[in-house]
């Protein structure tokens, strides 16, 4: 069994899609082991997206993620990292995310793609520590 860090980003929270995201996680058979609605400070957002620090969209990404409430969750199950990435769909909601995925069903723009899921065991460990430092 494996753990992954899932975020419902501010667009998902504002649009009332938290229940939909959680519902799909649960229907898949994955388990929620932590769940929290919160605002993110700039430091955590920059740390979370550190791998994108040199990208042209980094500023607007950090700005966006800190402007509204997010839901942070730890999700657990067999191959949870890959399983949630499949539920989320590709980064670009129109050209990469398949219909039937969260982004494919609900997204239109790359920046407003509803959810985040860790992309590797190393990322998951780092992100879980960052978002849930209390353990
Ligand atoms: P996350 O689960 O959020 O990390 O998405 P991802 O792993 O599918 O994509 P990636 O890590 O490459 O990019 C992180 C986030 O940056 C994406 O989810 C998008 O919100 C945003 N992003 C990626 N590429 C672009 C881009 O070209 N333009 C803009 N505006 N945002 C982008
Ligand atoms: Mg990523």
UniProtKB/TrEMBL annotation:
Residues 1-135 form the Nucleoside diphosphate kinase-like domain. CDD domains: NDPk_I. The active site is at 116 (pros-phosphohistidine intermediate). InterPro entries: NDK-like_dom (IPR034907), NDK-like_dom_sf (IPR036850), Nucleoside_diP_kinase (IPR001564), Nucleoside_diP_kinase_AS (IPR023005). Its main location: cytoplasm. Its EC number is 2.7.4.6. ATP binds at residues 9, 57, 85, 91, 103, 113. NCBIfam families: PRK00668.1 (NF001908). Major role in the synthesis of nucleoside triphosphates other than ATP. The ATP gamma phosphate is transferred to the NDP beta phosphate via a ping-pong mechanism, using a phosphorylated active-site intermediate. Homotetramer. Belongs to the NDK family. This is Nucleoside diphosphate kinase. It comes from Saccharopolyspora cebuensis. The lineage of its organism: Bacteria, Bacillati, Actinomycetota, Actinomycetes, Pseudonocardiales. The gene is ndk.
């Amino acid at each position: 069994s494996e753990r992954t860090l899932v975020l419902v980003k501010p667009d998902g929270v504002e649009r009332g899609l938290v229940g939909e995201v959680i519902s799909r996680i649960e229907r898949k058979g994955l388990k929620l082991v932590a769940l929290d609605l919160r605002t993110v400070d700039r430091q955590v957002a920059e740390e979370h997206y550190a791998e994108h620090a040199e990208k042209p969209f980094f500023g607007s990404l950090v700005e966006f993620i800190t402007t509204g409430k997010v839901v942070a969750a730890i999700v657990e199950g067999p191959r949870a990292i890959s399983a949630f990435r499949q539920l989320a769909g590709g980064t670009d909601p129109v050209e990469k995310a398949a219909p039937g995925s969260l982004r494919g069903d609900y997204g239109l723009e790359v920046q407003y793609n509803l959810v985040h899921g860790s992309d590797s065991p190393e990322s998951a460990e780092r992100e879980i520590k960052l978002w849930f430092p209390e353990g």
